[in-house]
Sequence to fold (196 residues):
Amino acid sequence: MKIPFSDYAWGAGAATGLVNTSALVRTSTGEVLTDPAALAAFLAEHRLGASHGAAAPTDADLARVLALRQETRALLEAEDEDEVVAGANGLVARVAPRTTLLRDDAGAWEWFLVTPPDCSAADELAALIGTGLLGALRTLSHDRFRPCSSPVCHGLFVDTSKAGRRRYCMPGLCGNRLNVASHRARRQATERPAGS
Fold:
């Protein structure tokens, strides 16, 4: 796999996505990565895995990705930038990648981190996440590693938005829940009879 150094949002998005697959975050639906098929779907969603020529994930791959999820969560929760850098460098180093200058899809030269062809799904994901976290930290700062603003969510995310004002780990889920709750509270307040 070729990971472009300039596309830190891809790896940061994979880190956010992975951390937020746990039952700790998905309290209403539970664990997302329940079996190798669910892992395959997650990898495909993040442009990895069998859809790109890799073998289908196994139970061993699933166990390694679940362990990686805990490591990634710890990095997103880390208060010290040096801890993030050390951990993310460790994720990248797992695959003994090579750095090379290649042409991108538009024909321009770009630096890529290239993983070996026999790289496991977990190690490929680790390299992508490590590269993404390092790029986000360098380009955007450690302030962009955040917990979800929803009071009922334990999710985390890396805010790679241009404005840097993202508040929710899953805006379509956590943001909508709060908007619906606020709407209901306002509606109930206006429906109450006067003097009650």
Summary: Residues 171-191 form the longest helix (21 residues). DSSP finds six helices and five strands in the chain. Strands lie at 2-4, 98-103, 109-114, 145-147, 156-158.
